[in-house]
Amino acid sequence: MKLLKAARTVFERDGYFNASVDDIVKEAGAARGSFYGYFEDKRHVFRIVASEVTEAVRQAVISGSATTGDAVARLHATNLRYLEVYRANAAMFGLVEQVATIDPVVSADRMEIRRQHISRVSDSIARWQERGLVKKDIDADLVAPLLVSMTSNFCYWWFVGSETYEWDRAAETITDTWVRVLGLASPERVRRKRGGSPD
Amino acid sequence: MKLLKAARTVFERDGYFNASVDDIVKEAGAARGSFYGYFEDKRHVFRIVASEVTEAVRQAVISGSATTGDAVARLHATNLRYLEVYRANAAMFGLVEQVATIDPVVSADRMEIRRQHISRVSDSIARWQERGLVKKDIDADLVAPLLVSMTSNFCYWWFVGSETYEWDRAAETITDTWVRVLGLASPERVRRKRGGSPD
Amino acid sequence: MKLLKAARTVFERDGYFNASVDDIVKEAGAARGSFYGYFEDKRHVFRIVASEVTEAVRQAVISGSATTGDAVARLHATNLRYLEVYRANAAMFGLVEQVATIDPVVSADRMEIRRQHISRVSDSIARWQERGLVKKDIDADLVAPLLVSMTSNFCYWWFVGSETYEWDRAAETITDTWVRVLGLASPERVRRKRGGSPD
Amino acid sequence: MKLLKAARTVFERDGYFNASVDDIVKEAGAARGSFYGYFEDKRHVFRIVASEVTEAVRQAVISGSATTGDAVARLHATNLRYLEVYRANAAMFGLVEQVATIDPVVSADRMEIRRQHISRVSDSIARWQERGLVKKDIDADLVAPLLVSMTSNFCYWWFVGSETYEWDRAAETITDTWVRVLGLASPERVRRKRGGSPD
DNA sequence: AATGAATGAGGTTTCATTCAT
DNA sequence: TATGAATGAAACCTCATTCAT
């Protein structure tokens, strides 16, 4: 919708706190009062805009859970999908972090994404452990949040902040680091070798 | 100083955006105008309060660079120091993340801390590589920011957010994860050519 | 407009410096914020109110430039028009002098009025000199500002200050003084070569 | 005194309204509170500074009342004295006009100067009329304030405002204009000629 | 639904003045 | 007398929100 699109434009341009309802309606070419026919207030419209983005991240993180094929290759594919979604929505994703610090609803959304992300990683680890690809002494309840923090926060400084990295090398190093942390062996390697110090 | 202490109290209680200069002077039992004898505005007083905290983090991260002794033990000590400083200043540290999104000065401070933290980790990795404790093919320019992201963001969700972890186990898992990522062998282990989980 | 009228009322009653935006909105029966929908600040609204008055003066000073008829009679008519406009807008005219000392825009307006006034007088003198009603050795570049100063400042003390003069006698003395300064002879008098006090 | 001098400096530099007590004590190198040991408030210190200036003008206007000698020459001398004092104290004199619009005491002082100036001119006219140098039909009660307005306001625009005139020519034209207004004949001319149309 | 003028609470900031030392 | 920190009244201005049209 016109106002929703305008809101996202203004938020991305000015940030949440500098954006005023006025700026949004001006951007949309609408009248001041029209805004309140659609949204309760600035928070409300932000929550809606934000949910578009968080949904995209959820998709990137949740999908592709095929249980067959090469584990490392699939992990890498998931990581690449995550990096791409993060980069494409960097501005809004930065804003979600910003607004989460003051809006309980956005904060809850943000936590829910992380929760799901962690959950998905935990499940993967458990599956790998069952298949003997990851040692049983890996504490998934701690390692999963650590890996999610590592990846999401690295993306934050890369795509929202001003750190610059080379795409391929960064993506590969991320996956490589996951592999080292988990001692994740490719199924082939498991077959061939005994097991698992990270290479 | 009275107003500085009050400012920190109010910021930690109400957050940056809900805090007003009025609240601060009320908390300090001072008059409205007194505030402006010491600070230019709310931003200014926040920057000062924040710099106290960022300085504490800097100390935790920078100090203790003895080059002898057990590498893993010293890494663990540094991590513990970091966790303790983060926990002790959790509220303010959360605020720094919050305000960094809108105040360029706080943002620059925040970036500088990260830069120094990464730098310190890079240096450690380089030293370990020279001593043969870490393989040369570890890309410190990417692994250092990844490790810093992992640790700082995990602390954020733990101490500022509402995730709960058991202190000892979390601390040990963090160090353990660093060790796995780097393939860091204790000097002894290097000598004895024996694997083992870090203490 | 409601606020503009209220602003003028308050300015005339309290002066520029004692008037607050609050007083103006209270006088208008409007809300604080309404003011800023129309004006940027107190200065701005004053400039608008002032421009109404300066425009009135400009009209009084510029108009009626018929080139025929009795010179003295027409001079007197112009002077009367000036006195009337000054008296009718005395309060505001005093304020313009007051605010001109601190607001560059009002100051520029004030100067422009004087410039136009002087210019108009200069032109008249030149015309009279061409027609032989005023001697060529009159230095219009100096005499015009002197006459304008005389008239406007006399009005200031009369209508804004507390000096009191009898209307007819003052008006006639002013015109009479202009005539003496310029040695302005009525066309008839020039023809008849007879002196006479201006009507 | 140190504060008085500083006050004048600050007033002349910043104007009355922009000048703060703070600026004055800073200029004087004194402490905030010291000011109130000497003056009641900003108005008070301005009144004192102003009275120095108004006294100078009073002197220029009142003195030199010798009743003998050439009338026009003495008039010119008085006018020159007035111009010189005005020019020398232009900044403060402008401020007096400014502050007179809001401070009753300064306003009264300003009026008193004008009253004395007018009075002095009236007396001169009366004396000249007795001596036959000025016609009896000149209405001194109106012509005196007109001449004072002319001279003082011309000086205002010249020395305080931004109008520029050549000193000698302006001074002579002023006196010349007085002479025309009054039909003032030099005693010599009176003796030689019959009477008095201004040359 | 759309409009946009009007609202007024809420914040910011200044500065003349006081007062304990 | 000198100091300068503290005071607090009084102004300023913004902006989310309402409401009559």
Write up this protein.
- 4 copies of one chain form a homotetramer.
- The first copy, chain A, is mainly α.
- Chain A has 2 domains: 1-39, Homeodomain-like (Arc Repressor Mutant, subunit A), CATH 1.10.10; 54-192, Tetracycline Repressor, domain 2 (Orthogonal Bundle), CATH 1.10.357.10.
- Chain A has helices spanning 2-18, 21-28, 35-38, 42-62, 71-88, 90-100, 104-130, 140-160, 167-182, 187-192.
- In chain A, helix 4 runs antiparallel to helix 5 (71-88), helix 6 (90-100) packs across helix 7 and helix 7 packs across helix 8 (140-160).
- The longest helix of chain A has 27 residues, at 104-130.
- The radius of gyration of chain A is 20 Å and the shape is elongated.
- The interface between A and B is large, with 39 and 39 residues.
- The first copy, chain A, binds a DNA duplex (21 and 21 nucleotides) through helix 3.
Which descriptors would you attach to this protein?
homotetramer, mainly alpha, Arc Repressor Mutant, subunit A, 199 residues, Tetracycline Repressor, domain 2, DNA-binding, 2 domains, 10 helices
**Overall domain count of chain A:** 2
Q: Poorly predicted ranges of chain A (pLDDT <50, ≥5 residues)?
A: 191-199
Annotation, overall tally of beta strands of chain A: 0
- Percent strand of chain A equals under 5%
Task: Give the end-to-end Cα distance of chain A, rounded to a whole number of Å.
Answer: 51 Å
CATH superfamily of the largest domain in chain A: Tetracycline Repressor, domain 2
Helix content of chain A: over 70%
